[in-house]
């Protein structure tokens, strides 16, 4: 009788190229790999350069130690549209603009390559919620899209319900309302002054606002959302979001002793 050897699920995992997003994505990658996933972790060339330089001063594969533990975590690099030596911290708007307008084409090129040659085949896309392309590209290549949110569920739901904030005059208004916000599903009364800074602004023409608007339209197309939060801390918010789509609290994603992780994450 023939034995059927089922290939493991293979997730393409793309973190947002900022420090606070990379660290939880690395821990998600190793956690999934420890449960039998093959992971292809996608770095921008600039982030890989920074991480390697901070780790040892030489370019190296940061997941080598994870593979030595038997975890199948691979690494692919994409260009974010800017030279590696370009100072992104001093040219924030240009960097954000490149992530908005240029990076998606490079990610699409990578997915196309892997869809032809990856072994085992890519079976899903896990991407940071702040990207503006995941749902569109996942649909194009016939992949389930898992949105990875690295912040509390409360912050996710406020961005997710931007339309309600606009409708009630609390956002994108020439005179943003000062009334208490009581209408966002799963959110107790909250004062406008306690909203995230981007949601207190009147001028919403910045590149950051363009990213937020487009990213959360993409998030509405996600097959499910993984959130780095704790169920017991945000039960009402999570329950309300679960009425919108599958939404899972998987935090804290950081394991005990994570500061001594063999996978380099510091920039």
TrEMBL record:
Name by which UniProt lists this protein: UDP-glycosyltransferases domain-containing protein
Domain of life: Eukaryota
Organism: Ensete ventricosum
GO MF entries: quercetin 3-O-glucosyltransferase activity; quercetin 7-O-glucosyltransferase activity
Residue intervals passing through the bilayer: none
Family classification: Belongs to the UDP-glycosyltransferase family.
